[in-house]
Structures are given as C-alpha cells and as structure tokens.
Amino acid sequence: MAGKSEMPAEAGNKRKAPGDSSTLSERVESVEDSVETEADEDSSSHPADDENELIAPRKALFSAVEGGSDGKEEILSCRPVVKLFFYPENGTLVEKETLATSEQRAMLLNSIRSRKFQKSHAHRLFAGILPILKDIITNEYYVPASAYESEEESADGKDEHNKDEIVPDEASTEAMLFMRASALMVEAHLDCLMERRSASANASEKLFKVTDEAFSVAELLHDVLFSLQSCGPEGMQLQSYISSLCEKWWLNRFIDRDYMVVQLIPLLMVKSLDDSAQKQTVKRLLTLKEAFNLFDFEEEETIAYLRSLILRTVSSPLYLGCNEGVRLIAYLFQVHDSLTRDLHSAIKVQIPDAKKKVLEAYGDIYLRSWTASPDGSAARMAVEELALQDLMFAALHIGAPKMSRSIRTVLSPLHEAKKTPSVDKMLHRMYGPILWRSLSAANPLVRINASIILSETFPLRDPDAGHIQTEACVEKSIGALKSLLTDSDPRVRVAGSDASARIIATFWDALPTKDIRSILNRKYNQNGLLIVPQISICSVLNQNFLVLSNRKILDIISKHASDLSSSAVRAAAITAVTCLLDAPQSHAVLRALLPSLGNLIHDNVERVRLAVVRMLIKIKSIRGVKYYHIVPVDHLLARLAAEEFGSTLSKGSVASALTELLLNSYFPRGDHVSSTDQVKRTLSFLTTHPQAASVFYSNISMHLGVNSVSKLAAMLMRCLTAAVDDEKSCQKEKKSKRKRSTENQQKTLDLEGKLSASNTQLMAAIAETICSLWESIATSLTEAKYQECSDFLSNAFSGTVLTDALEHFEEKASLDDWNVTSDCRRTCAALLQCAGRLPPQSVRGMSQFISSKLNDIPNSDDGRAAGVKATSHIALLCLWGMTEDVAISLSDSISSAFEADSHHEIGGEEKSKDGRRSSRLVKSLSLPQVPGKVAIQIIANILSGPDPSCISARKALLTSPTAYGSIEKALVRATFQAEKMLDINQRYQVSMDEADVSMVLSACESYGRLALHKGATTGGNGQLQFNPQARTLLAWITEKVLPSFAAPPPIPHTPAVGPLDTSILNLSRISSAGSVNASPMTQFSSSLAHSHNKANQNKTPEHVDTSFNSADGDISFELEGDNSTSRITAVSLVSSATVVFAEWLAVGGEGAAEIGATAGLWCQALQCEDSIFAKKLYPAFCRLALQLVYNANDFSVLKQLLTFANDNSVGSQEELVMRKTFDSILSSRGNNHKERVERMVDTVLVAVEQTLEIPNKKDCEINELPLSVDDVCSDCGKTISIALSAIVSSPLAMTVLARDLVKFLDKPYESKDKPHRFFVVKCLWYLITHAPKGAKGSEIHQLVRHLDINSCDSGGKLMEFAGDMSVHKVS
C-alpha cells in the first residue's frame, strides 16, 4: 500500500478531478441538456406516471455524481452520492416524504435496472462517478488512518494488528460508502443489460458490450480488492460487494471480463482456505473455474502466489469434504501440465497420513480429471503420464504395506470404473507394461502388491483388441495366480489366496457346477500325485470370452488350509472360502468341502480360529448349510471353554465371535420366547458346560443391550436366592424330600426339579455368571440413559438378599468336602463382588457379617486358609472405599510380625495391643489386626490372584498412594529379615521353623510383585514402566542374596524344631504359569495397562510340549548334607525374583536390558557346589531366558546357562526343561525368526568355545566318528549336548550351524584352536550323515562339498577324519 498523504479536513468531501480539461459549469450544462432530451424520449413511449417515477431518481443520481460549484473553483465530492444512497433527506425523491434508506436505495438502483435507462444515461452517470472514484483510489482515501499505524508497528517488529482492530474514520468511511454505491450502480446497470438480452443471446457464447465508463469504474473497483483486506470490517464488507460485481461480470459474459478475475480468483482462493471458510465460497470458485485458464502458469514468478494457493486446496478439509471442491481440483488438473505435476506432488505428500475418506476424495479427483478431459487431449495425457502412471507404479513397488494400501485406496475409483470401456482400456494400457513383471518380481512385497492389483483389475484387457487378445490376457492372469498360490513366501501365498477367491467369487456365474465339482473332488494316481483336470470355462463379458480356471479353489482348501509353515496362510484360506460364500452359486459345490475345514477351530493360532468362527457366522445366514454340520456343537463348546485360558481372559475376539454364533441357541430372543425359557436355557447351559457358559456370558453384553443383560442378572439372582431359601426350609423341616410351595415354584423357575442349593457347582456358576454380567455392563450403567437399569439392579440386589446367601454358603464352606468348600468359596467371592457394586447401606447386615468373619481370623488354626478366605472380604472393603483403612491394618500386622528380636521366634505372637480400627465409611464395621502370617498371605493372594476379588483389591491398593506406601513400607521389613537369614553367622537361624522361613520368602516375593505392579499402573501410553523399586529389587538380589551361594557352609547346629523341609521351594507357590510360552496373565496382567504379547497370536503351532513343571506339582526334596537356612533362603529368593521378572517380561514390561544384564550375574548360582540347590534354579532361569529372547532378542542369560551349568546338577527333569526351552526358541515364528535361530546357533558355538578353553580340554582327540549328539559333545558338557540336540531337530538351524562351522574351518589353522576344530569336524560329520531331506539337506551338503580339508590341520587325525568326511559328502 502506498504511503498516506496528509488530507485536509474536507479531503473526504471535496476532491479535484485529475486530468479533466473541461470546467465544471460546462459539464453541468451538458448533463442538464441530456436529461431534458431523455425525458422527451421517454414521454413519447411510456405513460407519464412511469416516467415521473424514473426521472426523479435519475435526476437525483446525475445531480449527485456531477457535484456543484461554489463559484470560485471546481470541486469533486463523494458526499452527495453517499447522502443519496445511505443518508436520505426529506423530499429528495418523493415530495414531502422521507423514505427509508433501503427503500430510497432500491428506487435509485431500480431506475438504473429499468429498460428506460439508455446508453446515454449510462455514459453520463458513470462519467460522473469515474473521476471521483479515481481520486479516492489514487490517494487511498478509503484506507483508515489506523491501518497505516498498524503497518508502521509491523515494520518496527511489533505484532501485526488484526483486521477487526482497525478503527474506521469519517473520511475513509465516506469513501468506502461511495465505492460501495458505485459497485451497486454498475451491478444494477449489468442487470439492465441482461434484461434486454434475448433467450438466444443468453445461449450464445459471444461477449456483450458495456459502456467504457462503466467498465472503467468496475476495473478501478476490481483493482482494490486485495487492498481492502487491511481496511477493517468495513473494507471486508465493501470487498464482498465488489466481488459480487466482478463475479456477475464474468458469469454473464460481458466484454473484457478477463480483467475482472485477475484479483477475484486469488481473493476467493484465500477466503476458501481460511479456517472460517464456508462451502459457498468453493461453489463460487467452481462457477468461475474457466477463469483459471487465463493465468499463465509457465511464468513461475508471476503466478507463484496463485499456484501456492491452488496447491493448498488438496490438503483443505473444506475442498475434500464437498463435491464442489473435488470437482474444482479435478478441473485444475486439466489447466496446465506444470499444475498437474505440482498438484499430484502435493497429493503424494498427503497420502501417507491421510484418512480413508480423504484418500477416496483423491481417487475421485483423479478419475474426474481423467474422464472430463477429451480423449487424446494434452490434458488427458498429462493426467495419465504425470499422475496416474506414478501412482500405479508406486502401488506395485512400494515397500510399506500401509502406504501401499493408501495408494490402492486412491486408485480404487479407477478400478471400480473398469466397466466403462474407456477406463478399461486405459487400465490395460498403463498397467500392462508393469503388472506382469511385478507378479514375477524377486521382491515378495512387489508380488503381494501385484496380486492385489490383479484381483482388482481382472480381467486386464483391451476391450477393442478382440477375442483372441482377451483370451491371452485371461490365460496370463490364470498363470500368474497359480504361481502366487505356490509361491515360497507365505505372505505371497496369502495374497494369492485372497486374489483367487475374489476373482472366482466375482465370476462364479460363468462356471458350470459339474466342472467345479470335478475340480474340487481330489483324485490321486498310483504314484500319489494329485490329478487336476484341465478345464477351461468361457464366459461372455462385453461380447468377449474369458477363459477362467478354477484349480485355485483346490489349492486354497486342500493345501493352504493345512499349511503348517504359516498360520497366515491357513487363516487366509478360511477367509478365501468365506469370500467364495458370497456367491450363492458356490453353496452347492462348497457344501461337501467345508467339513474338512472344521478341525481348524482348534488351531493353536488365534487368527486362524477367528477366521473359522467368522466363516461359521457367514454360513449361519445361508439357507441349506448348517454350521454345526461343519463344526459339531461339542467342539464349539470345547473351543469356547478353552478360550478362557487365553491371554485375554475370555475377552478375546474368538470368544466374542463364538458367543455371537451361539447366541440364539443359548439365549433365545423374540416375541415367542419368555423370560422363563431364557432362564431355563441359561441354567441348562451352566449345568452341562459350565466353563463354556462362563466365557459365553462374559461376552454376551457385546451382543445384547444393557436392559437384557440387567434383566438376566436379576433373574439369576432370584433363582439363587430361591434355591437357598428352599434348602434352608428343607433343613428346618428335616425332610429328605423337598416340598415346595406354589410361590417357591414360581420364584425358582424350577428346572425339572433339579435346581437346588446343594448343587454347589451350579450355584457357583450362577453366582460367577451374575458377577460377570454385572461387570460387563458396569461402565454403561454409569451413563444417564441407563439410569433405569442401574436402579433396577440396585433394587434387585439390595436388602438382605446378598447377605443371606453369603451366610448360607460361608456355612457350607466349612464342610470337610473339598469340592463343596471350593465351590462355596467361589460363590461367596462372586456375591461379595456384587455387594461391592452397591453402597454399604443398601446391603443390610453385610458389614456386621464381614466384621464377625474378620474377628474370627486370629482364632483360626489354619493361617493360610484364613488368608485365602479373608481376601474376598478385604476386596469388598476396598470396593466400599475402605482401601486405606485395610492397607494400614494389614501393614501394621506385617510390621509387627517382623519386629521381634533375633533371639525370638520371627512369626511369634505379636505384642498385645488393641489393633482394631474403626472405619470412617462403615460405622458398624471395625477392622481387627490379623496375625502377620495371615496378613502376608492376604497380600500375596491379592497381588497374584486371578479372580475378580483379587483384581479389584489389587487395583484399589495400587491406585491409592497412602495404601501403596503403607504396604510397601511393611514389606520392606521382610527384606531386612531375609538379610539376617542370609547371614551365616546368625546362630538363631536354626531355631526357625518352616512356617517362619516361608513367611519371610512370601513377603519378599510380594514386595517384588508390588513393585512391578506399581510400574504397570504408572506407565503412560500403555507402557509398563520399570520403576525404581524394581531396580532396587534387582540390586538387592545381586548384592545381598547372591553372595550366599559362594559362602562356606555354616557351623552345624542341632536343630530345635527338627530338620527344615525344603518344600518351601515349591515353584508352584511362586507362579502358577505352567508353560514357558504361556503368558502369566492369570496372575499378573489383570492390573496392567496393556498386554503387549498376546498368547497364541500370529504364531505357528509348535510340535513340542513346551510346558515346564506342573503348576499343581510339589517340587520338594531332602538335603543330603547340611541344611543351610541361608542357602535355602537364597535359592528361594533368586527363584522367586527370576520368575517374577519373567512374568513381567511376558506381559510386555520394560527393562529387559537391565533384567538380562543382572540375571546374567545370578547365573553364577548355578556353580553352587550343592547340585540340589542348582537344580532348583534351572526352571526359573530357563523361563527368564526364554522371555528375554522373545521380548528383547537377548541371549545373555541363555549363554550363561550353557556356560555355568554343572553336569552333576542337570538331571532328567532339568534336561527336559532346557530342551523345551531350546525347542521353543527354534520353533517360534515371526518376522525375526531366522535372526533368532542364527543368534541361538551363535550362542551355542560361543558356549562351546568357552567350554573348550578349559585347560584339561585341550588334549582332546577324535578316536572315532560320532554316532550321536552326545558323541559330538563328549568334551563340551551336557547342557551344550541338549542345545545341539534341539538344533539338529530344526532344518533351518542345521543349515545355519553348518554354515558357521564351515566358516570356522576356512580360517587359518592355529594350534590353540585344535580342540575346537575337532568339535567342528565331528559336528559337521554328524550334520551330513543326518541331513534332512529337501532343500535344507542339499544346502548342507553343498556347504561341505566346498570345504578345503587341507585347511583343517597340518596333518594327523583331524585331517584324516576330514578326509573321511570328504569321501562321504559326495554321496
């Protein structure tokens, strides 16, 4: 903007007309003469009243624009026009009457729009406006003074003022009002000219003339469009009037319209890209789209700003979210080659992070831009060569799967438009040169991309090429599909299976059923080779025959569904069959083949099972095919029950899908189904298949409404209560047969007289089902729309319903029958969970009952049983908001248990004091101080228990800082006591009994679990943080516990209470996880944020049993030597810590590097001189080593196991555990499987090298060639022999081992390597004599065939046996 000159006070009112040579008086006379002449012309052809109505406004306009003279100098003033349009005076247009501003303005504009407004009138009017407008624009009188001030502040580095902060002044306001009136008058004149056009003229493409003066006025207004951006709100308002004028000039094809869009187009682009832009602005731009062709896009400098605005449209949500915006961008693709290239580049930048709707909008843009451009035009060629070809090449060759999917989404509109002949021809022309090469590319990712493109573009043909060329293209496609289905890479086979299924499902109508049956019925010749008939089926598509082979179905069903090498292939085969079912004609053919897929319901991999269940759900909707004929109901229920033991605790996708499949069978719905029928079906299900029913009802809320679930829970509670009441009445009457009243019969919904509280197993199932149903809708019940359901459940469970049932089953739990006791405890735990969801005052009598039970704990003989029973009671108190009271009470009990002096019994009676604590929330409840042993048992149960009571209590303790702090402080005392026990000079150890040692060890284990649980709850973004407490535990084991293994045996003492039973080392107490591969979620992950390692997901079934010692087994033994309490304590602490950290890694916890480095030091305990102690450590170390390999690819602990292990400490049990560990590593699947195998082999060879470096191993010789792995490892130790046995059972591992051994022998010979070279030669001999069949065996022989035996040794036995090996290797 030009600098503002100083304006006099009247600058806004009186301005000289620049460049005007005539005097003002002459111009005024000329105007008066023309007015009289026009009046005479009008009066000759129009009535007098119309003429008077138009002449008065016209005269007022002329008078206002032509101004006046004060007799001294000629002046130009905008004030008359402003007053006339915006400040009307009395009698201006209508005598003795003042009109409203809008009315007077309408009369003025209507006088211009009238047909009587002649060309001479226009010349006169706009000739008067033009000099005033020039003066205003030239001197920038329309710019407020505050705008200049803001520019100066901006130049000084200060913040720029917002346009709304600019304050208008009187002069600028008057100037802008004049400009606004000018725009309105020109627009009215255009309306007048448009009114005079004929219909034929409007339909023509010619341009219409406008007076030069009117054009000059419009051009001046157009040139200030962008200047008005900085003139505040009034400037923006004036800008909209001028934009409307320019837009009308262009759209109605007036002459020189090109000059009216030079600033209009960029201005509208800027407005459309603003955050507050509206859809209407984009619509206006679309109507002006042809104006973009006027800009010279070859001039980079002059067009740079507009180009940048255009490129921003492809990332604008407003443009991409409306049809007009998509159409405009598609048009811009056709404007110029350079713009096409730049727009395509801008879109490519957006594709990686774009959402699906945005990608679809891009695809629509490409399709519209291609179809809208004429065939053979430069615009279409530019779109094809600069944009589409690039996308198609990238879709085939991009490496990232996500990016490839995004690009295919962009291309999908083109693929879907394939039925259009022109599009079909274009796809064939552009894909043809690159697709067929990509289908046979060396990179498997390229082949995968190509298979997907092939399925979307099949048949890839030129519709104009004729029948022969079409058949050739189809045959080529069929050959490519066959190659994909037999590809060596499982990912490619998955893609080929999907592509084949989609193609066959689409073109199934063209295949005769009898031919499909003959293909699918497998036949084998006498050599066992599969006979596949060569059948070609032709179908007419666009009057061309397509040859389609159906052998792919056979491959999918018979081969891919049983592919043991890849779970993804098996899952893809099931998905492909599900896709084929979309074709109704396929049902008759597939009906006989589907049962062969039923066994995959029990596949070890979750994705395969899920694919089978989804297929069954699809089949369920097909008439004539029954899903239970494919997978029997018994198998479905067994699978549903087995899902309970998965890592997701019965909440997995397979369990949910099975629930959906069986929903109508076990929870029928409909108008004809009553509530009684639903309950009967539920009770029957719980009776016959309790485990499956438990999983079913845990997932039923995903498929039913909250109302239905609430109603079912209430009805089941009514059945439970009625059964309890009935048993109580029977006990009172002391009758052998129950006699029920009519009322009781209605309440119990009697299931053929079998519903009885004496059936404790059914009662437990009912109670747990009620608990799971309530838990599944707990979150929904907090919403306002489900308030009625929440009130309904509260009313159904309030009162004494829960208390009476709890008292009854607590009493039954005291019976001698262990099964009955276990069932009653389950029932009580579930009822307490339900009570925890209600306010304490709603459950009458419950607080008094809990208080009495807690008071009985100190009098209990069995502290462990008392702790187990009290856990559910403690969980209820936590649910009622008494977490801090409970934690303080338990911590006081634990602290008092460890306050005894060293010469007293550790677990003796606590100091006599009143340990009762009154609850602040439940006044009728007092918390007694339980014995320390019971308190530790309660904490241990809460931290490791899998049931809902333990989970809820654990969550409450961990989320309360006060509760966590008090428990942690109390458990730390156990570590101090353990340090005393580890001190071999403490003579009082021998007076400790088994219970004392067990209590200390349990408390230490609980401290470790507490630390890791806390880290899991404090981690953000799903991360399981390795907190300082866990690091402290690592350091404590290393610094305080580990030295006990190297200490000399203590001075023997006579035990005071008999020998110490080392059954306290039972690992089943430490962990209940029974498998090295099983994620210990049942103990640990319920309180964690997320599980990063889901069991059985995307893993190939393993052919070995990977279970360690049974969780229920009791691993106990008697020491043959001195019973060192310190050594026993150390072994237990190391075992416990090792298992706890292994569980932490199994659920995705952080800190693998720290754990691995520290645990490597712990492996030194394996060198303990007492082999019995070392044996106790093997299972724990193997478990930790396996988790380190799985989660961090860390083999350090495994290496230490191979190096430090003592042959005397490796018995049959330990050998089995180690073998299963190695097998699990070698048989695991994943992207890094090969790397893991290589690391495993390298670790074993390093351990071999370290073992052979022992001095007494250097003189080993080969006396005879080995016949077994033990012969190969005769000088290396038993652990290496176990590892090598696992390696030679895996073809891939054998190949890797052979390659590494050959590399070692190729190195220059050194005498110090002689023992190692003897081992290598023996190992290679064993490998070639036991090489597997197939490609891996050939590779091993090929490696040995190129071995130079002269490099083995300078002579002697080693070269001799190497020569024997060279003789054997050629066979």
Describe what you observe in this structure:
- With 1371 residues, this protein is mostly helical.
- It has 62 helices and 6 strands.
- Strand 1 and strand 2 (530-531) form a beta hairpin.
- Helix 48 (1028-1041) packs antiparallel against helix 51 (1125-1146).
- It is globular.
- The relative contact order is 0.03.
- The N terminus and C terminus are likely disordered.
What shape does the CA trace take? globular
Number of strands: 6
Number of helices: 62
Mean pLDDT value: 74
How far apart lie the N and C ends? 94 Å
Tell me the radius of gyration. Answer: 45 Å
Major β-sheet profile: 2 strands, antiparallel
Task: Give the amount of beta strand, in percent.
Answer: under 5%
Return the structural class.
mainly alpha
Low-confidence stretches: 1-49, 68-74, 511-552, 735-753, 901-915, 1049-1123, 1256-1260, 1354-1358, 1367-1371
Give the spatial strand order of the biggest sheet. 1-2
Helix content bin: 55-70%
